[in-house]
Amino acid sequence: MAKVKIGISGNIKEMPADSGWIYDAVPRGLSDCVKEAGGLPIVIPVSDPALAKDYVEMIDKLILSGGQNVDPSFYGEEKSIDSDDYHLERDEFELALIREALKQHKPIFAVCRGMQLVNVALGGTLNQAVTKHWQSYEDLTSHSLEVKPDSTVSRFFKDGNSVNSYHRQSVKDLAPGLEVTARDPRDGTIEAVEGKDGHAIIGFQWHPEFLIGHCEQHRSFFQYLVNQF
Fold this sequence. Notes:
Keywords: Hydrolase
CATH architecture: 3-Layer(aba) Sandwich
Strand order of the largest sheet: 4-1-5-6-14-13-12-9
Protein name: Gamma-glutamyl-gamma-aminobutyrate hydrolase family protein
CATH superfamily: Class I glutamine amidotransferase (GATase) domain
Helix content: 10-25%
Number of helices: 5
Number of domains: 1
GO molecular function: hydrolase activity
Shape: globular
Radius of gyration: 17 Å
CATH class: Alpha Beta
Structural class: alpha/beta
Distance between the termini: 18 Å
Order of helices and strands: EEEHEHEHEHEEEEEEEEH
């Protein structure tokens, strides 16, 4: 039986810093999660948006990985913060991936920045700066979840389950094609979304790939993602 092919959007990283050597980078945890669940991970490098159709045609499902802030021009705002943590080329390409995945009816799982970008692609906006949502790297988790009953997310996570937090932006106005299925009870930050109107979309604001080795619930979620979603 052929393995389910999961495309994972890649970031662009210069390693070592200031070396001029550019790599296509994906968190190893995402590809490991897919492999452990029986899927075949395929890294999709940042490319010309015209190639998005071809990339999406060759996969069964799409994972949008985390990374930089989303350029506010895509949701009709000017930059209001002092930050250079943006990558316009990546935004343009991944927005094309999202459009193609929706057009080709390929499920999308979006992580952190990925969830924010899906919200923007479907007509939502972002808070350009949030505080108290970037935890120490030494800590495994930093806050709990408040989960909507009878959602897909509630099949794996319950009220009080702990997750991590590594984001400096967040969803502000929710896109009409999405519904909120988990929040941070501390301040109401949207932590998970799911697609409406037949769109197979799940987004997590946290990074499940950093918790897979410590949490059976996350391993079960990736089994669902690869084999049922």
